[in-house]
Amino acid sequence: MKVFWFVLLGIAASTGRIINFDTGPLGRTPPEWTSVNNHGRASQWEIRRDHSAPTQPYVLAQVSTDTGPDRLPVVLLRNVSLRDGDVSVRIKPVSGHEVRGGGLIWRYRDDNNYFLVRASALEKNVAVYRVQNGQRVPLLTVARHEIPANDWSILKVSLRGGR
Fold it and tell me: What is the value of pTM for the model shown?
């Protein structure tokens, strides 16, 4: 399995904060982001130029080529706390034989406890999970949805209290 995602993140909350990568270090992970170990080695992420990006010219790209069962390359924005608001991410699934897609994690406590929405271009669906003690548990019925490969899509999660 080779996974290569381009990710452009926009976070909208009560502060209306939007994050882009226009001033970050090209070829490196932005300093306020952390790559996480998840079923293998920590994934590699770097800022790259992508002329197809909806907000040009830079994106945060997952460039790891690690393989493994249930591999989930993760990068987290540090020092963000959001109880109520909306979080969205733009994804561009580029390659992968077993997995080709992207996702969004929220209410992250540690590597084994968080919520996840995952969009798969290969499986043509969107799924929502709670990861508890390292086990992925579906929260909703998997929704059939066309996720275009090599094109941009937006995933959005709305948080309200404990929901």
Answer: 0.81
Range 38-44 contact pairs with CB under 8 angstroms and sequence separation of 24 or more: 38/71, 38/72, 38/73, 38/74, 38/111, 39/68, 39/69, 39/70, 39/71, 39/72, 40/66, 40/68, 40/71, 41/66, 43/73, 43/74, 43/75
Q: Write the pLDDT tens digit of every residue in 114-157.
A: 999 999 999 999 999 999 998 999 999 999 999 998 999 999 99
Q: How far is CA 98 from CA 10, 16, 39, 81, 136, in A?
A: 27, 36, 15, 33, 18
pLDDT at 70 over 80: no
Which among 150, 151, 70, 64 has a CA at the least distance from the CA of 116? 70
Concatenate the DSSP letters of all residues of 50-64 into one string.
Answer: -TT-SS-SEEEEE--
